[in-house]
Design a protein that fits this description.
single chain; 2 domains; 20 helices; 5 strands; elongated; binds zinc ion; Fatty_acid_hydroxylase; Fatty acid hydroxylase domain-containing protein; transmembrane helix
């Protein structure tokens, strides 16, 4: 943003001011777009990335038009808030207090990613909304090209990005810092362009290094090992049932719609991350005082996966201990489950050469075997001798933070169709 623009525009009516500020953000985004385009061209020339087969059928002029009305419509959010709350640039500082700004960025990108996931997913679930609004973005001939980078309905742009960006702008106006808005705006623009570039990016890891230069707070993505990469969004266009989020994969992981599937521990890492950073940023102002305290906190954070490793190492011991807890006996009695020793009447007659998946549904026990397995592991359960027994947990239970991790430690899996069919058809296991 150009500081000298402020006083000139401030005298104009709100609509004109909004137009001016929105246009200046559009110009910003165009610069990012051109830079990314240049980088991709260089990489493509050197054979480091490959262009996907789908070529846009629309002429470049039409795509640029769609850019102006669709993709750039989300910048109205920033333009409007800025025109309303900060018509001159006088109260908007240009200094870049790195550590302090970093703490603002985390809640911003976390909240923004959450908003994006749910609104975007709803735009797919709600048939009316999809047909009249979001389908435009999914038109096969219109995406995956740097010139078209997003091609969306203006309402889509406002819903998915305009509103959250407006809130970020509001925050920026209140704390009087230009970079609060600048950093997320450019990060989002950069991700959108990469995500719709149509390139299969062998440089996905490098892409993060480049993004870190714009928004160092994306370090959290690398630390929690759940960064969404441009190919994830490309996958969303190939299969609109997967990868709804933008920065992270944790919401997709949680709702079982990420592709490719990630290890469940990434969610735990995210969870730990959130509970590590947020209280610190809200209550412990000392962390902002200097780079030393910030980097100390960061190093501590990097080591938070350690408890998870300890869990894994102790997995066998922990699971044996928990299996022997009397609570399982109480539960069997409470739920009127019967338990018969192998060979006794009513005992489960399992064939050791076959594989079993015992399902537990949180709304009611549908398979007694599940409890047999769970309670009987290491206690001469009728299924303890089977060479591969999986306890499948219901979705609600599986999706619950921490519980999911504990279940995974017990070799449980989720009851999704994909997981169960993958297990049943896995040749190596059978
Ligand atoms: Zn898209
Ligand atoms: Zn979509």
């Amino acid at each position: 943003m150009l500081p000298w623009l402020g006083s000139t525009v401030a005298a104009a009516p709100l609509a004109l001011r909004t137009l001016a500020y929105t246009s200046s953000w559009v110009a910003h985004s165009l610069i990012v777009q051109m830079l990314v385009w240049g980088v991709l061209t260089v990489y493509n020339r050197n054979g480091l990335s490959k262009k996907n087969t789908r070529e846009p059928a629309l002429p470049v002029s039409r795509m640029l038009l769609a850019d102006v009305f669709g993709y750039y419509s989300w910048m109205i959010g920033a333009g409007l808030v800025q025109a309303w709350y900060n018509p001159t640039m006088d109260s908007w500082g240009f200094e870049f207090p790195f550590t302090k700004l970093l703490w603002y960025q985390l809640p911003i990108i976390m909240a923004y990613d959450t908003w994006f996931f749910f609104v975007h997913r709803y735009a797919h679930i709600n048939k009316w909304l999809f047909r009249h609004v979001h389908a435009m973005h999914h038109r096969n001939d219109a995406y995956l090209n740097v010139t078209s980078n997003s091609f969306e309905h203006p309402i889509d742009g406002l819903m998915v990005v305009g509103i959250p960006v407006g809130f970020v702008a509001l925050l920026g106006c209140h704390i009087g810092n230009f970079w609060t808005l600048f950093v997320p705006m450019h990060t989002i623009a950069c991700i959108f362009v990469f995500g719709h570039s149509g390139y299969d990016l062998a440089l996905d890891e490098w892409h993060h290094v480049a993004l870190l230069a714009i928004n160092p707070m994306l370090l959290i993505q690398l630390v929690t090992a759940n960064a969404a990469v441009p190919m994830d969004h490309e996958d969303h266009h190939t299969n609109p049932r997967v990868n709804f989020s933008l920065f992270f994969t944790f919401w997709d992981d949680l709702f079982d719609c990420s592709h490719p599937k990630r290890a469940p521990f990434t969610f735990l890492l995210w969870f730990v991350s959130l509970f590590f950073f947020v209280p610190l940023s809200l209550y412990y102002e000392w962390i902002w005082f200097g780079p030393a305290s910030f980097f100390a906190a960061l190093v501590l954070h990097i080591f938070t996966p350690l408890p998870n490793a300890v869990y894994k190492l102790l997995g066998g011991v922990v699971s044996r201990t928990v299996s022997r807890l009397p609570i399982w006996d109480w539960m069997r009695r409470d739920l009127l489950l019967t338990y018969a020793e192998p060979g006794q009447p009513g005992a489960f007659d399992a064939d050791p050469s076959r594989r079993y998946i015992f399902c537990y549904q949180p709304m009611g026990v549908q398979a007694r075997g599940a409890y047999y397995t769970f309670a009987g592991k290491g206690r001469r359960s009728p299924v303890s001798k089977l060479h591969d027994v999986k306890l499948a947990a219901g979705r609600v239970l599986w999706g619950t933070p921490i519980v999911q991790q504990l279940l995974a430690l017990y070799d449980c899996c989720d009851t999704s169709y994909a997981t169960l069919s993958a297990l049943l058809t896995d040749k190596e296991l059978s």
